[in-house]
Write a structure and sequence with these properties.
With 330 residues, this protein is α/β, with parallel strands linked by helices. Helix content is 30%, strand content 19%. It is built from ten helices and 15 strands. The strands form four sheets. The protein has a five-stranded parallel β-sheet with strand order 2-1-3-7-8, covered by helices on one side. Helix 3 crosses helix 5 and helix 5 packs antiparallel against helix 8. It is globular and about 65 Å long.
Length: 330
Amino acid sequence: MTTPRLRMGLMGFSVEDSLAALLRNRSALLKWEVSGIEEADALWVNGESVGMVSHDLVRVAGHGSQPEVLLDLKHLVRPTAFTTPIADERIRPPVTFDSSSPASVDKVLRRAETVLQPLVMQLALAAQIAERLHEMTSETYHVVRGGKLVAVVNVGGPIGIDLTLTPQHVQESTWKGLPAAAGDVPSSFFTTTYAEVLWVYVSRVETDLLPRRYRSAKLYFRAIPRVSPRHLTNTHYQILSELASEPQNFKRLQQAIGLRKEVLATALSVLYHAGSITTDPARASRGTGRAAEGVAPGDLRQMLLPQSAGAGASAADGGKRTLPIPLDLP
C-alpha cells in the first residue's frame, strides 16, 4: 500500500539535512517529509533565528533562498514548534522542542499529529479507497471494525469519519457495500467529501497515479474540482484554463505551461481523481473549446473560486453527482 506523508515546513534553518533525516527516519505508523512552507501541514521554526517585533509578532530570519518571515503567534493556523534555545528570551513560543533529543522530537510530532487528526484520518481512509478503487461498485460503504462504525463513504459524495479512532482502526476495518439510502453520516463524525479525501491523498504519494492514457490521449476540461479552494494552486488553474480553452495532449500542455513532466503528471493526477479532466470527449464540459461557457481562459480562476468551495452538484448537471471514480475506465 502506498503510504501518504504529512508535510513539515522548516523556517529559519541554514542547514536542513539533519532535520529532514529526523523526519524521514522516524519509526512510526505516520510518516513525515520536508515540504515548502505554503503547502506544509505543520511548521518547525529555528529558535536561534527569531527576534521579537512586538508582543505577538516574531521575525524569522531568512536563509539561502528563504526570505525573512513574520509570524503572528496569536494566529497560527498550523501546529508550530520552535527549536531551543530561543535567541530572544522575550519570545514565548506555543511549543518548543530539543531537536537533538529523539524523545523531544517524537513528542512534538505526536502533538502535531493530534492537532492534524482530521487530515491523518482522511489520508488513512483515502489509502484504503485507493486499494479498492476499481472494485467499488456500490454507492455507499460502511467501514466497520469489530461491529463499530469507523466511517461512512458515499462514493462521489459526503464522507464521515470517527476522529476518536486511529489509522490502524481504518486499516483493520471491513467495507460493506450498501445502497445510497444508507449514506447518512452520524452527527458526531467529521464530515468531508470524496473528492477532497482523494485530492489530499493523491497529492501526497510518490506513486504515479495518473492513468497511462493521460500521457498520450487528448485531454478535456470536464468540471470544476469540488474541493476547498485552498487546495488549488496556480498550476491547477493554469491547466484548467488551457483545457477550458481547447483540448490538448500532455506534450502540448507541458509546452504551454512550462512544467517538468513529473510536476505536470502530479497536477493532472489530482485533477483526474477530482473529476475535473477527462480523455472522453463525451464527458467533457460543454464549454470546452469555447472558453468554458463564454468565460475567457484567463478568467477561469474567478469562475473556479466561488464554486469550488461547495460540494453540491451544479444546476447544469441536474443535481447529479459528477463522481465517483474511476471516471474514465476504458
